[in-house]
Amino acid sequence: MVGSFKNGASLLGVTYGLILCTFTVTLSVSQCPGCGPEVLKQSKNKAHEMMNQAKTLFRTYVSEQGFQPYINLCDESVGWFPKPNITLLPRTAMLQEIYLTLQRLDRTFAVLMEQEKALELDSNLLSELTEAHTSITALRSNIHCALCPHKLPDTSSLPQIPKVTDFFQQKTEGCQVLKAYVDFMRQVETGLGKLTKKRGKKRSKKTTNF
Fold first, then answer.
1. Contact yes or no for 116/129 (Cβ under 8 A)
2. Residue 162 to residues 19, 140, 143, Cα–Cα distance (Å)
3. I want to staple 17 with a disulfide (CB 3.0 to 4.6 A). Which of 45, 77, 111, 205 is the partner?
């Protein structure tokens, strides 16, 4: 069965981006946009929506790519997702890690979408990938707001993604990324929930003191 995936790649004559490579980024100060006081709460709610979206996307990917016999391969870790659990980090470090990972996901999902377009199949996967990509961009913008005026990852240092032609490898990498994405969004929701509660407690203390 593995061989049939590889033959499919050569027949299609399509090159795909290698999405498991580690992106190197540097930090720079970016101009802060106008942000409302509820940006963390909005981000937490968005993260909850994205976590459910990610679960559905992972199931769709496995089903439509015919990857059920190899689903155990999806459990392999992806090096550029944050370790250890981001919910244990201080506020600024947590938000920077979230922003950085969303930046990498933005690039990776663009590659996944190109892969799906190249196959020219009539499926739900491309629309779900596109919706998730839009959500990633929106949450990244919110995290940008929450971080300002701290240092933000500089996108100009992200390298080009190398090309490979192994179709089975691409399916494996896509599965691994989407499985890790589910876990990441679960952490993001939990972490932003903690920050939102802390902010609420600070407001409560100020009101009491007044």
1. yes
2. 8, 24, 28
3. 111
Amino acid at 35: C
C-beta separation of 112 from 177 below 8 A: yes
What per-residue confidence (pLDDT) applies to 128?
Answer: 97
CATH, residue 143: 1.20.1250.10
Looking at per-residue pLDDT, the higher value among 20 and 128 belongs to: 128
* Whole-model pTM over 0.85: no
Is residue 31 a part of any domain in this protein? no
Strands (E), 137-195: 152-154, 163-164
Distances (CA, A) of 63 to 3, 68, 121, 129, 143: 19, 7, 14, 14, 32
Instruction: Give residue 116's domain range.
Output: 37-152+171-197
CA angle 155, 156, 158 (to 5 degrees): 70
Task: Determine, yes or no, domain membership for 20.
Answer: no
**Residue 13 predicted with pLDDT over 50:** no
In a domain, 81, yes or no: yes
For the chain, what percent of residues have pLDDT higher than 90? Answer: 54
- Say how far apart CA 34 and CA 148 lie, in whole Å: 10
Q: Which two tokens stand for residue 55?
A: 């679960």
Phi first, then psi, for residue 21 (nearest 5°) are -70, 150
80 located within any domain:
yes
**Hey, is 174 helix, strand or coil?**
helix
Mutual angle of helices 167-209 and 39-64, in 10-degree steps: 160
Number of domains in the chain: 1
